[in-house]
Design brief:
The protein is mostly helical and 157 residues long. The protein contains six helices and no strands. Keywords: Disulfide bond, Electron transport, Membrane, Mitochondrion, Repeat, Respiratory chain, Transmembrane, Transmembrane helix, Transport.
Amino acid sequence: MSSYQPGSVQTRPYVDPTPLPDDIPKVQELGATSGPLKSAAFFIGAYCKEYNEDFMLCKAENRDPGHCLKEGRRVTRCATNLINKMRENCLSQFQEHWSCLERNNQEYYLCRKPERSLNTCMFEKLVCILFCLYVYLPILFFLLSIPAPLTDWFDLL
């Protein structure tokens, strides 16, 4: 006699053996662990911003996992492209940063020194500042448009 187990408990993850349709482009998986992904997260967010937004809009539109496969593949392709560029141009800094993250329980605050060298390399070699400004410039303009606080109560009169 067997004991009761709820359906949510599985011994191994479910993998659908059905191949994807031909109209969905084939993309290799990223193949990176959490350390490199977390190390590159801010750059992926800036570099793949439009693809990520399309994917999130698609997911909000329809909760069916098959509905957004094309958008998900575009995000994966973009992230793969960026990580390959990071490996080509800033390999030692990238490895140093993600290794630090893996040694320190994925905590950013313990890896600021390697993060600084990675950021410097990315800004110098990949001109990531353009992508980062594209993401953060609207926030900067908003913050600059806020009026300065009053310095004296006399200004109220």
